[in-house]
Design brief:
Elements (H helix, E strand, L loop, with lengths): L2 H10 L4 H15 L1 H12 L15 H25 L2 H18 L17 H11 L2 H22 L13 H19 L2 E3 L5 E3 H6 L5 H21 L4 E9 L7 E4 L2 E4 L8 H22 L3 E9 L5 E10 L3 H12 L9 H4 L1 E5 L7 H11 L8 E2 L4 E2 H15 L4 E4 L1 H9 L1
Antiparallel strand pairs: 1-2, 3-7, 3-8, 4-5, 6-7, 6-11, 9-10
Length: 422
C-alpha cells in the first residue's frame, strides 16, 4: 500500500481520523507495515454502508434520498418482470432478482430462503416485496447498519470502555438520542381519536403503555412477582438459583488487570450482536440438554452489557429442589465448553448463587439488574461503570436499541401467564 492510498483510507474514517492514524502507527511499531496496512484496509471498509456508495456518517436525508431512488428503480424492475411471465413465474422472478440486488449491495435479505428458494410462500414473498419497495423501510435498514458499524469501529479502536464511553460510543449514543427525539416529536404532532370522540397525541398513548420505562419496569416486576408466588404456592418444592454467564475472552475488546483497562490481544472483532448470538446458541444447547435430562425450569433472563459493550447474562431460574445440583452442573459445563481453560475463566465465566428464601425474595435479587437496564430506579451507582445508575441506564437502553438486543426475556410460558394473572 502506498502513502497516498494509506492517507485516503485514514481520512475516509472522517469521524475518528486521528485515532485511526494512531492505531495504524501502533500496529506498525508492533507488527510491521504489511500487518498495519492489512488492518487499515479491512478496518476502513466498515466505514461503507454495504456497497451503496454511502458512508456510515451519511445524514438521514442522504440515506433517505438514496433509499427513495433505489426503491423506485426496484419498483420499475418488478413491473418489467411482471409483464414477461405468468403470476407464479413473475413472483418467483421478482423475489430472485430482489435477493440478488439486496445481497449485491452487501445487505441482509429480510426473508429466509425456505419461504422462496424452492417453494414460494406467496403471502410472505409479497410482504417482503412490499418491504423492500418501501423507502422508509429501506432507509431504516441502512441506518441500522450505519450505527452498528459506527459503534463497532469505535469498539475496535478502544474507545468504548469504562474510562472512555461506557457500554456504547458517545457518537452512537448521541445519534440514538437524536433519533429518539425525532420520533418523539413526530408522536407529539400525530393524533388519534377513539370511538368516544376523545383525541390523544400518539405521545400520550405511548406514555400509557410499556414504551414508558416506568410502566415497563412495573410490568416486569409484576411478572417476576407472579413467577415467585406461583413457585411458593405450588405443591412442588421450587428452588430459585441466580446464574451469571459471560462469553469467552475473545468476544471482549478490552481486558482488565488490577483495575487497569487495556486492549484485549485475544479479541476477534466480534460485535455485541454476535456475542449475543453466542449466548443464545449456548442457552439453546443448555435447554436441549435439560429437556433430555427431564429437568424442569422457569424464570427470567437479563442481558446487559459489560462496560465495553459485550453482553453477559443474568438468569433467575426456579427448579425442583432435587434437580438443582444437576441443573447447575449442566449450565457450568456448557459455559466452559469453549475456551474453558483460558486464564481468568474460572473467575469470570460462570457464577451460581443459591437463593436462601429465608433471607429474602428471589424477585429482589434480580430486580436490580432489570432496573439497571431500564431506568436505574433505586440503583444508586452502577457497579459496572462506576457512574450514576440513571445515566448508565440511558446508555444501556441505547446499547440494546442500537444492537437489537432484548434486555429481558422469560422461559416457561405457563409461569409467564401465571405472572400476568397475578
Amino acid at each position: 500500500m502506498d502513502d497516498t492510498t494509506r492517507s485516503l483510507l485514514i481520512n475516509k474514517c472522517n469521524l475518528f481520523t486521528d485515532t485511526v492514524r494512531k492505531h495504524w502507527q501502533n500496529k506498525f511499531k508492533v507488527s510491521g507495515q504489511e500487518s498495519a496496512d492489512l488492518w487499515l484496509d479491512t478496518f476502513s471498509k466498515q466505514y461503507d454502508i454495504g456497497k451503496t456508495g454511502l458512508y456510515i456518517d451519511a445524514s438521514d436525508e442522504d440515506i433517505f434520498n438514496y433509499s427513495k431512488l433505489k426503491t423506485e428503480k426496484i419498483f420499475e424492475l418488478i413491473k418489467i418482470i411482471e409483464k414477461r411471465g405468468n403470476k407464479h413465474n413473475s413472483l418467483k422472478g421478482t423475489i430472485y432478482n430482489l435477493h440478488s440486488i439486496i445481497v449485491n449491495l452487501g445487505l441482509t435479505f429480510p426473508l429466509n430462503e425456505r419461504y422462496w428458494y424452492d417453494n414460494i410462500n406467496e403471502k410472505k414473498v409479497r410482504s417482503t416485496i412490499s418491504q423492500i419497495t418501501d423507502p422508509m423501510w429501506f432507509a431504516r435498514q441502512l441506518r441500522t447498519i450505519a450505527i452498528r458499524q459506527l459503534d463497532q469501529m469505535q469498539r475496535e479502536l478502544f474507545l468504548v470502555h469504562r474510562d472512555k464511553s461506557k457500554y456504547i460510543s458517545n457518537i452512537s449514543f448521541n445519534k440514538y438520542l437524536s433519533r429518539k427525539e425525532k420520533n418523539r416529536n413526530l408522536l407529539e404532532k400525530t393524533f388519534a381519536q377513539n370511538d368516544l370522540g376523545d383525541i390523544y397525541s400518539l405521545a400520550e398513548l405511548s406514555d400509557k403503555n410499556v414504551s414508558n420505562p416506568t410502566l415497563r419496569r412495573h410490568e416486569l416486576m409484576t411478572r417476576m412477582d407472579g413467577f415467585e408466588k406461583w413457585a411458593d404456592e405450588n405443591e412442588f418444592n421450587w428452588q430459585p438459583v441466580f446464574y451469571t454467564i459471560t462469553a469467552p475472552s475473545k468476544y471482549h475488546p478490552t481486558s482488565q488487570s488490577k483495575g487497569h483497562i487495556s486492549p484485549n490481544q485475544k479479541y476477534n472483532g466480534t460485535t455485541p450482536k454476535q456475542a449475543q448470538h453466542y449466548l443464545n446458541t449456548l442457552w439453546q444447547r443448555i435447554r436441549a440438554e435439560l429437556n433430555r435430562q427431564g429437568i424442569k425450569i422457569f424464570g427470567f433472563r437479563v442481558a446487559e452489557p459489560h462496560h465495553d459493550g459485550t453482553p453477559h447474562w443474568h438468569l433467575l431460574l426456579f427448579t425442583l429442589e432435587h434437580q438443582e445440583t444437576e441443573l447447575t452442573e449442566i449450565i457450568r459445563n456448557y459455559a466452559f465448553a469453549e475456551d474453558g481453560d483460558e486464564k481468568g475463566a474460572n473467575k469470570h465465566r460462570f457464577e451460581a448463587v443459591r437463593i436462601d428464601k429465608e433471607k429474602g425474595r428471589a424477585t429482589g435479587y434480580i430486580a436490580k439488574y432489570v432496573s439497571k437496564n431500564i431506568d436505574g430506579y433505586k440503583v444508586d451507582i452502577d457497579d459496572e461503570t462506576k457512574t450514576s445508575s440513571a445515566i448508565s441506564a440511558l446508555r444501556a437502553v441505547a446499547w440494546a436499541g442500537v444492537w437489537g438486543i432484548r434486555p429481558v426475556s422469560y422461559t416457561h410460558l405457563r409461569a409467564h401467564e401465571t405472572g400476568r394473572n397475578l
